Amino acid sequence: MSWGTELWDQFDNLEKHTQWGIDILEKYIKFVKERTEIELSYAKQLRNLSKKYQPKKNSKEEEEYKYTACKAFLSTLNEMNDYAGQHEVISENMTSQITVDLTRYVQELKQERKSNFHDGRKAQQHIETCWKQLESSKRRFERDCKEADRAQQYFEKMDADINVTKADVEKARQQAQIRQQMAEDSKADYSLILQRFNQEQWEYYHTHIPNIFQKIQEMEERRIVRIGESMKTYAEVDRQVIPIIGKCLDGIVKAAESIDQKNDSQLVVEAYKSGFEPPGDIEFEDYTQPMKRTVSDNSLSSSKEGKPELRFGGKSKGKLWPFIKKNKGVTPEDFSNFPPEQRRKKLQQKVDDLNREIQKETDQRDAITKMKDVYLKNPQMGDPASLDQKLTEVTQNIEKLRLEAQKFEAWLAEVEGRLPARSEQARRQSGLYDGQTHQTVTNCAQDRESPDGSYTEEQSQESEHKALAPDFDDEFDDEEPLPAIGTCKALYTFEGQNEGTISVVEGETLSVIEEDKGDGWTRIRRNEDEEGYVPTSYVEVYLDKNAKGS
């Protein structure tokens, strides 16, 4: 099958068809270009999406990513970022391997097509010129033949006419001979041109046009093959990134499988554990029974109006403390306003940070020392004295950091030494964690501590406690000494700075005259004339077996 033999008379249609083929190729190039733009846009949107949900540095959100679920989500974001990169690779490869290549090929194809059809038109013009020459020689031969016939007829007429002179007859005869010769010449010329035209026409239809059309056919077939190869490349570009995309998806699956709900639950415990123990049962106070101590009517009224109200305020506070707003006060340097467990973690974190700073400064000092040694051995490289000031500053910084680390390590050792004893015996639900904080405490019954270690104070209760504070003194002044129901040992030093409280020293043994009623305070006595309230979490209570309560 050859276009030169099958389509020898379809020059115009072939010209239209090849132009259509180029249009199809350009349309495919445009399609691939738009695909690359979509891939780039998709990759950009994926990257922006991944960046949008990345945790912000040095923020609370970054701390949340210690949980396995959050880590898996972070891994997903990172994998999606790599996933976006593969779509960028698709765009780049399609641009370089298809778009650029085909665009250059289209230009070459247009030039080749133009050259082939130019040769075809040139051949057409040549055969048309030959045809015109043949037609012209044919008409001239026809005309000369007719003129020769007329001249011959005129001569025969003149020769038959007896009235015509011999000279006129001779003249007619010569004219007929001339015309006859002209006809013969035209015949020979026409015959020659006809032979030449037939030869040209044969070559045109059997050589020139087939060759030109064959080139056009080969050009068109190459275009078809090229667009097919481009389509294969289009698929291969996608196929090449499939393994990497599969790895990205496998990474997401692996991250999801790494989620450990038990570990996350343990992290919640570590993050919010206060170190206190939950409160014990509140004892029933039977106000229908007579009091076991002899008091006057005034002191009884004072007792009912003073201390019980104060306790109830404390109990109300104790029940509501998970929902009370955190105190916005300044955090002490030793984190003494935190519960024991949280304080230990804060101190440990501070010690670790200081150790890292010390290591950093130490490395810097070593580097400066080495540089100074180099300068000493090679003075042309620098002045060793120029490093003395910097070396002194770094050494001073290291010393400051070490002193700071020692201070926090001492606090940490203190907390770690106390935690086991408290966790075994004491009920640590509320009270002041350290009586020497910078917060101003104005009530005798200290506010309960929330689970995250923050302390709260409400103005209404503060004013109420202020108003009740004198009743403490009245109560102690008017009532008879209560019998001891047990003893207690001070676990921590407590400075009783408020009305109705009493100061104790760590390790001190005192008498218990009234146990904790659920408000977080225990009433104790030192000697016979000094008594008051201390936080229950600051003492370890040993009740007599025959005493009321457990």
TrEMBL record:
The gene is Fnbp1. It is found in: Cell membrane; Cytoplasm, Cell cortex; Cytoplasm, Cytoskeleton. Residues 337-414 form the REM-1 domain. Residues 436-445 have a biased composition (Polar residues). Keywords: Cell membrane, Coiled coil, Cytoplasm, Cytoskeleton, Endocytosis, Lipid-binding, Membrane, Phosphoprotein, SH3 domain. One of its GO terms (molecular function) is lipid binding. GO terms for biological process: endocytosis; signal transduction. InterPro entries: AH/BAR_dom_sf (IPR027267), F_BAR_dom (IPR031160), FCH_dom (IPR001060), FNBP1_F-BAR (IPR037449), HR1_rho-bd (IPR011072), HR1_TOCA (IPR057870), SH3-like_dom_sf (IPR036028), SH3_domain (IPR001452). Residues 344-371 form a coiled coil. SMART domains: FCH, SH3. One of its GO terms (cellular component) is cell cortex. This is Formin-binding protein 1 isoform X19. Residues 294-314, 421-481 are annotated as: Disordered. Residues 1-264 form the F-BAR domain.
